[in-house]
Amino acid sequence: MQFIDLQHQYKIIEQNITSRLKDIMENTRFIMGVEVQEIEEKLSAYTQTKYGIACASGTDGLQIALMALGLEAGDEVITTPFTFFATGEVLALLQLKPVFVDIEQDSYNINPALIEAKITKRTKAIMPVSLYGQCANMDAINATAAKYGIPVIEDAAQSFGAEYKGKKSCGVSTIGVTSFFPSKPLGCYGDGGMIFTDDEKLATDMKIIRNHGQERRYYHTKIGINSRLDTMQAAILLAKMEIFPDEVQKRGEIGARYTERLKNIVKTPVVQENQTHVYAQYTIEIESGRDEFCKKMQDKGVPTAVHYPVPLHFQPVFKDLGFKAGDFPIAEAVSGKVVSLPMHPYLNKEIQDEVIEKVKECL
Q1: Identical topology for domains 6-101+109-241 and 244-362
Q2: Which tens digit of pLDDT belongs to each residue from 12-60?
C-alpha cells in the first residue's frame, strides 16, 4: 500500500507529459521557457489573482515574499509554531524574529484571536499557515492585519485548490505562496513553487528578486536569489492542471468518507464553515501510544506519517528564542497525537476500507 500514489496519476497523464517534455528537449528552452509564463497565467487565473510568479520551491517563495516587503533584520513576523520547518527557516535566514501564536484545536491553524496581543512596533508581517489542506481563518487575520497596516502572507504550501468562502487559497491575503513538491495536492516531479498577489509593485519586485535581482539582463536593482522554476517542471504542472479540478473533488470525497467512518473512533479533521479541504494530509489524533499505533499499522502493511512531531519553538536551532514547555499548549499537545493516513485522489474504496479497518484493529 502506498501513502501517496503518484504512479497511478502518472499513467493517466503520461502521454501529455511525454509530449510536452519532448517539445522542450527539442527547443532546448530549459530556463524560463514559454511554459513557465503559461503556468503562471493559468494558476493566477485559477486562484483569481492578478499575478503569479513561479519560483524554485515553496520555501523560496516565502523568502522572496518577505524580501519584497522590505523587511529588515530584527523585524518581527507573527506565525504558528505548528508547521513544517520552512515557515520558520526563512525568517531565520533573513534575520527576522519569529513571534509564535498558538493554534486552534480543531483546524490546527493559527488562532486569530491571539494575534493582536502579539503585535508590536516591530511587527512587519503576519504569516498564517493553511495546514494540512485547509485555509486558516483569513477574514479574522486580515481584519487584525488591516487595523495595524500589516501585510499578510499565506503559507499555502499544503492548501492549493482549497476554498475559503468562495475564494481560492493563495488569493485571500496580500501574498499567497504555494509549493509544488511532488506530494502536494498539485505537485511537479521535483521542487517548485509559486507566489500570488494582486499588488503590481510587489509582483514586479518578486519577479526581479527570483532572478538574481535583475530588472533586465545584467542590470541588477536588488539583491535577489536564483529561484526560477524549471521549464520542464512547468510543463508537468500544465499537464497535471488538466486533471486537477477532478482530483480536488476526489480528495474532498475521500476525506469525507474517512471522517464518516472514523469520527466515532478517533478525532478526525474538522472542515470549517464555508470552506473546503484538499487533504494534503488526512490527519487524525491518537490520544496515547502514537508510536505503538504507527508500528502496528506498519506491521499490518499500512503506512502512516506524523506531520509534525516537534513544534518550531522546540527545535534546537530556535532554543535561543527562550521558549519553554507550556508556552503554546495546543500546538504542543497535538504534536504528540497527530497521525496522517494514506491519502491521494486515487485511493479506491477497497483500499480505504482496509485502512479504516486497520485503524480500528490497532486501537
Answers
A1: no
A2: 999 999 999 999 999 999 999 999 999 999 999 999 999 999 999 999 9
Q: Which amino acid is at 194?
A: M
Output the nine-digit C-alpha cell for 150: 500589516
Architecture in CATH for domain 244-362: Alpha-Beta Complex (3.90)
Contacts of 290 (CB under 8 A, 6+ apart): 306, 336, 337, 339
Max Cα-Cα span within the chain: 64
pLDDT tens digits for range 209-237: 999 999 999 999 999 999 999 999 999 99
Domain locations along the chain: 6-101+109-241, 244-362
Read off the C-alpha cell for 94: 533573513
**Among candidates 353, 307, 302, 286, which has minimal Cα distance to 3?**
302
Alpha carbon separation from 120 to 94, 98, 151, 176, 305 (Å, rounded) = 19, 12, 14, 23, 37
Q: What digits encode the pLDDT tens for the residues 110-153?
A: 999 999 999 999 999 999 999 999 999 999 999 999 999 999 99
- Residue 160 sits at the vertex; the CA angle it makes with 159 and 166, to the nearest 5 degrees, is 90
H helix count then E strand count, the chain: 11, 13
Q: Are 234 and 36 in contact (CB under 8 A)?
A: yes
* Tally of CB atoms within 10 A around 217: 7
CATH number of this structure's domain 6-101+109-241, picked from the four choices 3.40.640.10, 3.20.20.60, 3.20.20.70, 3.90.470.20: 3.40.640.10
Residue type, 151: P
- Determine the Cα–Cα distance for residues 361 and 228; give it in Å rounded to an integer: 47
List C-alpha distances in Å: 52 to 45, 178, 217, 252: 9, 11, 21, 25
User: Does residue 144 sit in helix, strand or coil?
Assistant: helix
Q: Which three cell numbers stand for residue 233?
A: 517542471
Rounded to whole angstroms, what are the CA distances from 317 to 61, 65, 120? 22, 23, 24
